Amino acid sequence: MSDPFPSLSLAFDGPPRTIKHAVFDFDGTLSWLRHGWPGMMLDIFAAHLPPAEPAAREAVRAELLRLVMALNGKPTIFQIHAFGQYAAARGLVVPESEPLRQAYQDLLDRHIAERAERVRLKSAGEDAYVVAGARQLLEYLQAKGVRLSVLSSTVEHRVKEEAELLGLARYFEGRIYGSLADPSGFSKRVVFERILRAEGISGDGLLAFGDGPVEIADARDLGGIAVAVCTDEHVNGSGECDPLKREQLLGAGAHAAIPDFTCAAALLSPLFA
Questions:
Q1: Is the distance from CB of 35 to CB of 245 less than 8 angstroms?
Q2: Are residues 250 and 140 part of one domain?
Q3: Which of 49, 141, 47 is nearest to 93 (CA)?
Q4: In this structure, are 112 and 199 located in the same domain?
Q5: Are 32 and 231 in contact, with CB atoms under 8 Å apart?
Q6: Domain boundary among 121, 153, 185
Q7: By residue range, what is the domain housing residue 89?
Q8: Which own/partner contact pairs does 262-269 have at CB distance under 8 Å and 24+ positions apart?
Q9: Do the domain assignments include residue 1?
Q10: Among 235, 265, 243, 231, CA closest to 30
Q11: Is residue 192 part of a domain?
């Protein structure tokens, strides 16, 4: 298997950078509370598709997975709208977007609640639902004097609650940003720009981590270093990049792709030499 931790030092031709701020996506990048969400979304969609032979069902599922993952990093409603367009283009009638979104959210919330309860009751390990190596990387970056932020498309109050639950909020000192009540107007690019202004830095002082094409493309466009976190949706810390995430995130401009953070300090050390 190819090395999942390519050297970041090989990705840049320009002068050395001084990294001042690191921005992390939350779900799938730091938190594993929502793992398996793509399969849950596809299950909701499948209930409204006509019966088909197993091979045809798998082909449709693969097509929809690619569509869903391409919009990872945007609020859920964008993926629901995309499914509606997919169905309409094929002459299919499916429910309106909001009932579909609510059905998916209800299913996802049941899984989140069960996992959160395990954390509260300490029946799961301290970092069972923290992406492997994430806490160690946050401490490493803090020790290097890098300020940290979270930027998520999940509703902001939930991101803050879950960051507290997982013991991650303290690393960000209040700099946790999520979408507002109306997610249709949410833009990660706008928040990225606001963070840069607030911190008084340009894009070349930015390091960004995410598992969605949106934050990778935005960070790259702003002149930052973008690291694709291609987390396994089934086994936390498997050391295996999700192949579709890796393909899409490198295609969005990521400078490197990693399966988790277990070797991230070594990966990033050239930036702090």
A1: no
A2: yes
A3: 49
A4: no
A5: yes
A6: 121
A7: 37-121
A8: 262/132, 262/133, 262/237, 263/5, 263/133, 264/5, 264/133, 264/137, 264/140, 264/227, 265/136, 265/137, 265/140, 266/5, 267/5, 267/7, 267/8, 267/227, 268/8, 268/140, 268/207
A9: no
A10: 231
A11: yes
Asked if 24 and 149 count as a contact pair (C-beta separation under 8 A), the reply is: yes
Half-sphere exposure of 132 (CA within 13 A, CB side): 17
How far, CA to CA in Å, does 114 sit from each of 41, 157, 169, 251?
Answer: 18, 19, 21, 35
Q: State whether 165 and 48 are in the same domain.
A: no
- 18 and 42: one domain? no
- Cα(73)–Cα(187) distance, rounded to whole angstroms? 10
pLDDT at 13: 54
| Rg over CA atoms, the chain | 19
Separation of alpha carbons 189 and 215, rounded Å:
8
pLDDT digits (tens, 9 = 90+) for 17-63: 789 999 999 999 999 999 999 999 999 999 999 988 888 999 999 99
- Could you tell me if residue 223 is inside a domain? yes
Where is pLDDT greater, at 184 or 78? 78
122 vs 10 pLDDT, higher one: 122
Q: Tell whether the model's pLDDT for residue 175 goes beyond 70.
A: yes
pLDDT at 11: 55
Residue 2 resides in a domain: no
Q: Residue written as tokens 């639902």?
A: 129
pLDDT for residue 267: 84
Residues 78 and 183 in one domain: no
Residues 156, 252 within the same domain: yes
pLDDT digit string, tens, across residues 194-241: 999 999 999 999 999 999 999 999 999 999 999 999 999 999 999 999
How many domains are there within the chain? 2
Do residue 161 and residue 91 come from a single domain?
Answer: no
For residues 227 and 230, give the distance between their C-alpha atoms in angstroms, rounded to a whole number.
Answer: 9
Both 157 and 254 in one domain: the answer is yes
Please list, residue by residue across 225-244, b when 16 or more beta carbons sit within 10 angstroms of its beta carbon and e when fewer do: bbbbbbbbbeebbeebbbeb
